[in-house]
Amino acid sequence: MTDQSQAGAQQNAKDVPELPKPEMHIVDMSKAEVDFAIEVAKKGIISLFKNERRSFCEVAQFIKKEFDKTFQGAWHVFVGKHFGAWVTYETHKLVYFHIGQAGFMIYKHG
After folding, report:
1. Residue 3, pLDDT score
2. How many angstroms separate the CA atoms of 53 and 107, rounded?
3. Cβ neighbours for 42, distance < 8 A, ≥ 6 positions apart
4. Which residues fall in a compositionally biased region of kind Polar residues (predicted)?
5. Alpha-carbon separation of residue 96 from 21, 83, 90, 101 (angstroms)
6. Top-level CATH class of 25-108?
7. Domain limits, the chain
8. pLDDT means per 10 residues in the chain (110 residues)?
9. Structure pTM?
């Protein structure tokens, strides 16, 4: 990596704020799935800061694709600052949490 590209990478890292610790609201999911959910949610939020994605809808689509690929089945994802939900889900396949002001609900049904 050249000095110039290294400096650019360091500047991009500075542009992305440190994300707060997730605030868990509902956890009915294995630890591995919860850890994965938090990891991909953080990647999604960071992608907004980097302008790689433009909306919470695009972040939800990214998370759904990652869950479908990794855990298979019909996963559903809500991402946003304000939403309500009443869902039917498979046993042990739901997590709801916030990272900062962004809420994430991920569940499997079908």
Report:
1. 53
2. 22
3. 19, 99
4. 1-13
5. 14, 12, 14, 13
6. alpha beta
7. 25-108
8. 50 72 98 98 96 97 98 96 95 98 96
9. 0.85
